[in-house]
Amino acid sequence: MTSLSFLxxxxxxxxxxxxxxxxxxxxxxxxxxxxxxxSENITEFxxxxxxxxxxxxxxxxxxxxxxxxxxxxxxxxLTSLTGLSLSNNSIxxxxxxxxxxxxxxxxxxLSSNHLSGQIPLLPxxxxxxxxxxxxxxxxxxxxxxxxxxxxLSSNKITGPIPEKFCELQHLSDLxxxxxxxxxxxxxxxxxxxxxxxxxxxxxxSGKFPSLIQSLSNLTLLDLSWNKFYGTLPIxxxxxxxxxxxDLSHNxxxxxxxxNITHLRQLQLLNLSFNNISGxxxxxxxxxxxxxxxxxxxxxxxxxxxxxxxxEFLDSLSAVTKHQQHKYxxxxxxxxxGIDLSVNHLTGGIxxxxxxxxGLRYLNFSRNCLxxxxxxxxxxxxxxxxxxxxxxxxxxxxxxxxxxxxxxxxLDLSYNNLxxxxxxxxxxxxxxxxxxxMYDGNNxxxxxxxxxxxxxxxxxxxxxxxxASGENSESLFFYFGLVSGFAVGLWAVLCALLFKxx
Length: 501
Hints:
By secondary structure, the protein is an alpha/beta fold. It is about 10% helix and about 25% strand. The protein is elongated, with a radius of gyration of 33 Å.
């Protein structure tokens, strides 16, 4: 079949073997065999591909085939490739420096293998590189000025980001998470195309990066688990396209700038595990993307369409329901939450928080918050996880909390809450899965606790009247005692005064 140009044999249960070679298929342009081959040696397979003097093989996809062996260092008969995908195999060895001679190569996917060594200089025409989840090491060198997507996550790469990073004017998605990068980020004048920057779980340091101020189209920013310090800059409120902001597990301090509420597209705000102080910004209602009316249902937003099928954006995560959950690109649209836990925040929980009725999770635990839980929390009907534990909140638990029908995790432990616990089937179900959710509130009473409510606890109004009556009786008693003592003393003195010697 020497005229064959397209051969697709995809997702066939890894049951096939490559019994014949394709050396004579000089017209073959696309070969798609992902998820079909049984375990096979990568070098032996490459030798079976077309070896014509004018090879036309443009795209080769061999993902999910459990291929073994060392990555071939010479693939001279494949220099016409524009796309090579070998992800999720067991290929070892180093990435061939000969790839630099693949002048037509635009897409290279080598993730989830056993590759080691340093990343070589890349073809100048390369646009997408995904080598995540390998054992690559050494420092990073850029050799592809037109790169658009660069995914190096979950390796052992060290050193700083080189200054040449600023020259990548076409870069749209950068993921360097889960490595050993260190130092400060370079200062770039402008990177207009960058929309996602994921640098979590490294050793980056320095003040909050000024580079970010120039990223006008930034949609996703994850700097978590690093050593950044300093205050949150006021200009962070000018990143109008920002939807996901994760700065957790750093050394940031100072207050949360009020104009962070200008980020009307923001769906995720995670500032947990820092040293942030001050109060929670009041005008939370400006975070319109956290309201139910702004969650897309039928019309998918433009920013999401480009990510929907990109597996390299599966690294975004959030702590909900006391567990860390990873979100695939297909579900990133539904991440809506605020996490300000483990800081030094003071003041109260703003009543305006209830206007964010699209929130899925809310975590203010381990701060110094005071005051009452907002009584109008009931309209937040989509919320699944609420954690206000380890604060100094007081007053009664609002009855509207029982209206949260999607609630599966609630933690109000170690506060100063008092009064009768609201009843409701949803709260009873939540308590069954977390019976410590009311611990450390000694003035709470009623089911499901074993502590019965006295008349004072069960009815605060009549309890106050009773306490007032008891106080009046006590005052009357002591007034009578003092008066009697004064009259008696005066009588004795008078008797002594008029008694003759």
